[in-house]
Amino acid sequence: MAYLRTDDHVRIYYEEHGPTEPKATGSPLVLAYGIGGNADLWDVNVPALAARHRLVLWEPRGHARSDSPEDPARYSFTRWALDLKAVLDHLRLRTAHVGGLSLGAGIATRFTLAFPSRVRSLLVTNSSSAAGLPLSVDNIVMRARSIEVTLTRGMDAMAEFAMASNPNVAARLALDPSSKDEFYAYYRRLTPIGYANALRALLAMDHITERLSQIRVPVLLIGGDRDPSLGPMKVMQAKVRGSQLIVLSPASHFANRDQPEAWNRAALEFLARCDAGARGRHRARRR
Question: Which residue range is the domain that position 80 belongs to?
Answer without folding.
Answer: 2-132+207-286
